[in-house]
Design goal:
It is built from seven helices and 16 strands. The protein is of the alpha/beta class. The protein folds into two domains: 116 residues, Rossmann fold, CATH 3.40.50; 106 residues, OB fold (Dihydrolipoamide Acetyltransferase, E2P) (Beta Barrel). The strands form four sheets. It has a five-stranded parallel β-sheet with strand order 2-1-3-4-5, with helices on both faces. The longest helix has 16 residues. It is globular and about 55 Å long. The termini are far apart.
């Protein structure tokens, strides 16, 4: 996994760097002292898998970063305070580590990030299917049957008709697995199948499933409108 560190404290950055370099299959791409530098790295490096992110930083906080930018990889918050945990998990972070940094706790968070990547496997010979780890086995699910994906803390509800698969993953990971031709992210907590949308009204989607409505996030509405086949 390719990792970047974002923390304004030099000691914390150095400790995280040591943790990353000590861990197999982690590669440190950059260590940044502020969000702006991190955004530059994300624009230049398209293969970042994980951000180790502090919350309290100058100019732009870690939470503001999560609220503002939608196209980011998995995030593990590393903060000296527990107060931001609810906001962080509302933004679908993979885990939340409270400083001081402990290597065993660091490894536990990294394992969660790795599991989030591995819980979904696409059939390389048939992109019409996705494999979901469910009840100890890999369950094949047809892409066209999937109605939507919903964030639920550090889990995802993948809904296909009457079936619901609850898996440990991130919205970013799900977004990379579902085919862009049929699926679009409409909210930080929802990805929907375009073929399952019945009606759009203001900032609400009405799906083919009876009584189901899904909110449209401000940051995602323009992208959704571009994807609709308007006449």
């Amino acid at each position: 996994m390719n990792v970047i560190i974002v923390d304004d404290d030099s000691v914390s950055r150095e400790l995280l760097k040591i943790c990353v370099e000590r861990t197999d299959n982690l590669h440190l791409v950059a260590s940044c002292s502020n969000i702006r530098d991190a955004m530059t790295v994300l624009k230049e490096e398209k293969n970042i898998d994980l951000i180790l992110l502090d919350v309290e930083m100058p100019e732009i906080s870690g939470i503001d970063f999560l609220n503002t930018f939608k196209d980011i990889p998995q995030v593990i918050i590393v903060s000296s305070k527990k107060d931001y945990a609810a906001d962080a998990f509302d933004n679908n972070v993979t885990d939340y580590i409270v400083k001081p940094i402990n290597y065993d706790r660091f490894i536990k968070a990294i394992d969660k990030a790795r599991n989030a990547e591995n819980n979904f496997k696409v059939d390389s010979q048939n992109a019409e299917f996705i494999f979901v780890r469910h009840k100890g086995r890999l369950q094949r699910v047809s892409m066209e049957d999937i109605d939507y994906a919903e964030a639920n803390a550090d889990y995802i509800n993948l809904v296909a008709g009457e079936a619901k698969f609850v898996v440990h993953s991130s919205m970013k990971n799900i977004e990379t697995k579902l085919p862009a031709r049929s699926f679009v992210r409409v909210h930080r907590g929802y990805i929907v199948n375009l073929n399952k949308i019945r009606t759009l009204e203001e900032n609400t989607l009405y799906m083919n499933i009876k009584g189901l409505t899904i909110p449209i996030g401000r940051l995602y509405k323009e992208q959704l409108m571009r994807r609709l086949n308007l006449v």
